[in-house]
Amino acid sequence: MFDVYITRAGKYLPNEAVSNDEMEGILGMINDTASKARRIVLRNNGIKSRYYAIDKKGTITHNNAQLTHLAIEQLYDENFTKNDVELLSCGTSAADNLFPSHAAMVHGLMENQSVELNSSSGVCCAGMNALKYGFLSIRSGNTKNAVCTGSERSSTWMLAEKFNNEVVNLKKLEEQPIIAFRKEFLRWMLSDGAGAFLLESEPRGEVSLKIEWMESFSYAHELDACMYAGGDKLEDGTLKSWQDYTPEEWLKESVFSVKQDVKLLDKYVLDKGSDSTKTALDKHGVDYRDVDYLLPHVSSNFFATRLYNSLLERGIDIPEDKWFMNLSRVGNVGSASIYLMVEELMNSGRLKKGEKLLLIVPESSRFTYSVSYLTVC
């Protein structure tokens, strides 16, 4: 078995940072009415700025594959070019197309040579799943390097025009033309961007991160879906697929909007994440006191203190001065968020050889979690 190192990290955040006051001007007002939920959601999530692949005139500037490719290009130098890539492993919540795969579309933009491809679906853990594929490939000797990515283009899902037909339908039914909170909530939470890692079997440069281990956990066997798109949840908790709706219903009921069951999120996301973290640390015999940096992907600062308390209840006391987060500056970028945190810390000049990083990534879609442990080399 071979050691695996993150030797370079890159990112791409499109256009200029968007402030809280600018969001609705870009995404648009549903039913020409300012959102009542926006200020409440933003006050709780603590996000001050984010990035959209839409300019301030409303023009779409990048698709998901383009964002990913631009992040990958940050990995190249005179010692590693696009023609040296052996494996491309890409994770995202929503690819540009149902098929071809996201990785195939990104590879098409690279214009290099034939490589092995992997596309990981899911939501926030899609990026970690893509990373694990690359990690296992190098660890087993299948390849000597891998480019792994996490990326999102959520903004176009949240444009007001995507909800207009539902509002019109509600008016026809003489109901209040107000979009359900489970649909509007995520309009003020999600943003766009991409991160990329170069994985190799030897360290390179001033700072490399050795991946000691990666663990993943799913609780879909006991919990219903919490975050979903391309369908809707029925009263019995099952999801009805977009394929089982008529084309007219796709628009009338905003079937393709991203939805969140906030009650389920609040009830389970922290406890299952803390359980998973403790299980992973115990399995590998890691003492939490050895952790120098905790990088938790949280969708909202509302959960940060509660996550600390939840970990503490399980005997894991990692003080908040060891936490590294950039949520307030870049927003919640789903599967790219952990890449953006690692990239920023890795290139900050703060890391010292021998320090340990613990990554925790929750995915609320049907409660999946990824935990990883890194050593600075």
From TrEMBL:
<keyword id="KW-0808">Transferase</keyword>
<dbReference type="InterPro" id="IPR013747">
    <property type="entry name" value="ACP_syn_III_C"/>
</dbReference>
<dbReference type="GO" id="GO:0004315">
    <property type="term" value="F:3-oxoacyl-[acyl-carrier-protein] synthase activity"/>
</dbReference>
<dbReference type="InterPro" id="IPR016039">
    <property type="entry name" value="Thiolase-like"/>
</dbReference>
<keyword id="KW-0012">Acyltransferase</keyword>
<dbReference type="Pfam" id="PF08541">
    <property type="entry name" value="ACP_syn_III_C"/>
</dbReference>
<feature type="domain" description="Beta-ketoacyl-[acyl-carrier-protein] synthase III C-terminal">
    <location>
        <begin position="281"/>
        <end position="360"/>
    </location>
</feature>
<dbReference type="GO" id="GO:0044550">
    <property type="term" value="P:secondary metabolite biosynthetic process"/>
</dbReference>
<protein>
    <submittedName>
        <fullName>3-oxoacyl-ACP synthase</fullName>
        <ecNumber>2.3.1.41</ecNumber>
    </submittedName>
</protein>
